[in-house]
Every structure is written in structure tokens, then in C-alpha cells.
Amino acid sequence: MKKRVVLPPYIFWLVTFVLVPMSLVVYFAFTDKNGNFSLSNLNDVFLYSNVFLRSIWLGFIATSFCFLIGYPTAYIISRVNIKCRKFLIAMIMLPMWTNFLLKTYAWMTILEERGFVSCFFQFLGIGKFSLINTSSAVVFGMVYNFITYMILPIYSVLIRNDRHLVEAAQDLGANQLKIFLKVTFPLSLPGVIAGIAMVFVPSVSTFVLSKMLGGGKDLLIGDIIDMQFLGSVYNPCLGSAISLVLMILVFICSGIMNQFVKREERTVIAL
Amino acid sequence: MIKRGDFILKKNMVALRNITAIFGDHKVIDNLNLDIKDSEFVTLLGPSGCGKTTILRMIGGFLKPNVGDIFIEGKNVTNVPAHKRNVNTIFQSYALFPHLNVYENVAFGMRIQKKSEIQISSQVEKMLKMVSLENFSKRSVTSLSGGQQQRVAIARALVVNPRVLLLDEPFGALDLKLRKDMQSELKAIQQKTGITFVFVTHDQEEALSMSDVVIVMNEGKIQQIGTPTNIYNEPRNAFVADFIGESNILDGVMLEDYIVEFANKKFKCLDFGFKKNEKVDVVIRPEDVKIRKSGLGQLKGCVASVTFKGVHYEIIVDVSGFKWMIQSTMFQKVGSEIGIFLNADDIHIMRKFEHSGEYGDYSAFSDEMYEVYENVTK
Ligand SMILES: Nc1ncnc2c1ncn2[C@@H]1O[C@H](COP(=O)(O)OP(=O)(O)OP(=O)(O)O)[C@@H](O)[C@H]1O
Ligand SMILES: [Mg+2]
Question: Does the first or last residue of chain B, that is N or C, have fewer Cβ atoms within 10 Å of its Cβ?
Fold first, then answer.
């Protein structure tokens, strides 16, 4: 057996920022308002099962869009010359330096009925167009905010792509499409998996987005948790229970995705 | 030695015509013409940077020549992309696919060709057997040793039945013992399959022991083409003589037919047809120099160093400033005076060429390169 060397600062970090908060979540999840052991909170979580399903569904759609847009983008960035590449990376990183709320407010005004997009469509004679207060707007917000986390890990894998492997595939008769399907794409899978995890997890647990862009009609699980702690219903025990279930679901998803990558390349969570 | 008849029987497999390759303003290959015959083991031999890899990449289709045409089996393939050429390459870095196991690596080419699963498995098993890796088919290629990876690369290239196999310093990363084993294994594979091999190396011993034909190159130009014995015994110029084996190379003057002057002495030789008083390079192999008692030879010198090399002693003798290398089974004492005797047929006369004088007195070119490297790293 290998002896594990764990550095003291790492232990400190682990205890203060992971173990203690997690234990608190677990403790509250199994406690009622009077501080007694109870399973009723977990029972109540199932009242929100449709919210869970919607969150996972929207998260899934947002992740798919991020992948479909992000992969080609990362591929192109990894292919262009170094000057162009630096510029494109900067363009992609730039929105990350702007405050999340600020960006979302900006999108609210752009997407609303009298907003820029609507005016543009009216100008073209397509008619009034309003994306605001729909699930599409929420998905749009997720894609906009999280796509960077899809592009960067895929890009970092593609940029390390070994030219010799591409030549070897070509040598054995593969054309450009086959080279991509049989060599480049499979080798970039660790980046894809990391990207999916980094987009899916925050998408599922996001809050505020649904309130601001979705009009607060179809709340997401993140909003429900938010409400239990800061809203009028104030019930931290139920909030903890929902968080716990969400966490377990995320762990299961990551575990499933990890099965697609070789053991030594696992990036998400080593289960 | 290749008989004249062989050349007529064998057809050209690869032909390069007036090939020039330029990178930036550096002419790497300069108007090169080359014929490679069917089912021959041909070696490109030359110092680092002389353009060997560049030639292979042009035959493989990874690089287009700036000028000239490439023919494979008589067809002009200059504009045919790599994946449509019936030529396969074994890369120096092996370039195995890390996401596929040994079996799938070897099967790659056949899967591209959409062969049936039955065909694939019988061919792949046959190839793995040939390179003695039949028990490794499920192993990940990253878990293999260098020699095993090398053999997977060979199997992967041969499974698609190429007409020509290009090998770019395939044994560069292997240790000496493994290198020797792989050399004989590879030679056996070549003889069994009858595929034309174009092999690149800068190791002259490897080139001489494996090849049917050796092509000695320097700075993008062919210096000599011939069989290993031919190249060793009759080097065409001082560069070849120095690069192939060890040589003493001296400046000489052809006084008349069969008479050459060097080291301030006249010698009988077997060469003729030079201009009167033409300046020439005189090449003498260290094993051809005979040691005599002081005063009995044609030249007189002082033993500077003696190194035991297993079969023979390597003796460096200082003859009025020029250091001769002599290989002899007789021990000599350092500092003693000895005589040097040369037979007429051991003196090889070569025309001066552009690089004459670039190579030192006794040591082989490759040794000089190592000395340069050592000095740089020090
Ligand atoms: N892509 C390139 N761009 C610019 N110069 C290049 C390129 N490829 C090769 N060269 C130059 O061409 C010359 C020949 O290179 P090549 O790789 O063919 O040498 P080589 O004979 O294979 O040497 P080695 O034994 O070190 O592998 C070198 O001077 C090298 O610097
Ligand atoms: Mg090379």
C-alpha cells in the first residue's frame, strides 16, 4: 500500500471549508426545528421532485448547448496561429471578469419586450419577440455564464494534441474526418468530461437566473434552497435536506461520467 | 555486391526526380535524384540535420517538395496526400494511439479500410505473432516497454500491406542490446515480407550490417550510393571515408599515375587518371597501417597513446605533427619510436571535394560530433 502524504495546510483547508460545512448540512438535514433527530425533512424534499427534475432538465439542455457551441470554438482556437489564439482566449475570458449580476441585468434589458433583440426583430419585420420570462431565457443565461468552463478544459486538451498521432493516423489511411473521429476527439474526452461537469453542476444548482430571466414562475432547485435560508418560509433544516439530496445527485452524475474516462485521466471526482 | 543483372530485374519502387526542399531560405535538399528498387533494404545514412527525415516525409506525403516529382510504382504521387499513398511510416517517437490497446492500435489501419471483423482479427493476430506480442493484445500501449512499443509500431504499419515501409531512426530510443536484437528481427521481417524498406539512421554500423544498399548523405546531397562492402572498401570521397568507419585522411599530391606524395614522402599506389600534380585526399584505414621497428618503415613516429579495444589496440602515433590512428593486435609502449609501413593497395586516393579538410586527422566523424556535444554540455 502506498503511504499518502497529506500536507498540513491542505488538512486545514479541508476541515474548515469542506468537512465542517458538510457536517452542518448533514446535521441540519436530519434535525427538526426543535433540534431532535427526524427524517421528515428528507421526506419533504420529495414535494419538490418536479423542481429537481426541471432543474436537471434545464441543466442538461444548457450543458448540451455549451458542448455543441463550446467544442467547435475550442477546436478552432487550438488550430489558429498563436497571435489569433491569444486574442480569442482573451475575448472568452473577458466576460468572466464582469460581475455575474451585472451581466444578467444587462441581458434582462436586452431580452425584454422593448429591448434590443425585440426591436431588431421588429425592424426586420418579423414582429415582436420577447425571450424574457421563459425557460429558454434561463437556459440562455446558463449557457452564456458557464460556456467558458466548457471551452477552457477542452481547449487545454486539444492544444496538447500530438502532431505525430495525427500523422500516424493519416499514414494509416485516415482522412481529416476519420482522424478527428478516431483520434482527436477520443483523446479530448477528458477535457469534455471536465467541461460537462463544470457546466452541469453550477447550471443545476444556479439561482437568481430563473428569477431574473425566467420571471420567477418556474423556480429551480437553487431558488428553493435560497428561499429556505433567506426567504419568508425560513426553514434551514429543509434547505439542508434539499442541498444534501442535490449533492448526492451531483456525485452520482460525476461518478457515471467518470466511467467514460480511463482511470489515470479522471479529472472530476475520484470515486 | 549487387550483380548487374539484379538492377535490370528489379523495378523502381520509389523514384525521386530533381527534388529540392527549402525551409525559409535554407535549401535542405538540393536537386536530389534517387531510385529505390523493389524489395530492397535501403538505408539513408548521414550526420544530424543532413535532410534524412525531410526525404522520408516527402516520400510519405507529409511534406511537398518545392521542386521536383516523386514516383511510387511508376505513378507520380507528388500531389497525392499521405492517406492515399500505399506507403507506411514508423515514426521515431512510435506515435502509438494512447487511447487504444495493443490490438486496436494494430487494427487501426484495417478499421479505416472497413475490413470485416474476421479479416481484422486474423491479420492482427498474425502480425502480433510475427513481432512476438501475441499475449499482449489487451494491454494498454502506455504500459509497454520501449522495445515492445517499437514492435507494436512495426505491426501497425505492416498490417495494411504497404509496398514501402519508411523507418525514421526506429531504434534511437533503445539500449544497445535491444537495438541489436531489433536489428536482426527487423531484417528478418523485411526478408520474409519482401517489402521495400527505407531506413534512416546516423549509426554507420547499423547501416552497414542491415542494408542491401546504403545512401550516404551530407547537407542535402547524396555523397555515395552502394552496397555496404562497396561503400566501406571504396569510399568515393573523404567525407564518406571518414563517416564510414575510422580513417586517416591526409593531404596529398598525385605526382603522376601510380605515384602519390604525402607526409613529405613518395608512395606507390594503384590509382591513375589524375592531372599532373593534382591535389588529392589520401585515405588510409587504421587497420591497414603496418607497424615496423623504428627506421624500417616508410615513416617514423612517436606513440602518443594506446587504448585497448577488446580485439585490438588503438594506437595514436604522432608523425611530425599529424596524428595517425593505427589498429593493431601488437602492444606498443607509449613514447617509443616506431616505423610505419603502407602497402600500395592500402592507399586510397580521392579527388578533393568541397568539404575536404573539414574532418580532423585520425578520428571518425561521429567521434568528433560526440566531442563537440561533450564540449557544449560541459
Ligand atoms: N519544419 C521545418 N522548418 C524549418 N526547418 C526545418 C524544418 N524541418 C527540418 N528543417 C531543417 O532541415 C534540415 C534537415 O532536417 P532533417 O530533419 O531532415 O534532418 P535529419 O537528417 O533527419 O537529422 P537528424 O538525424 O537529426 O534527425 C535541418 O537543418 C532542419 O533544421
Ligand atoms: Mg531526423
Answer: C
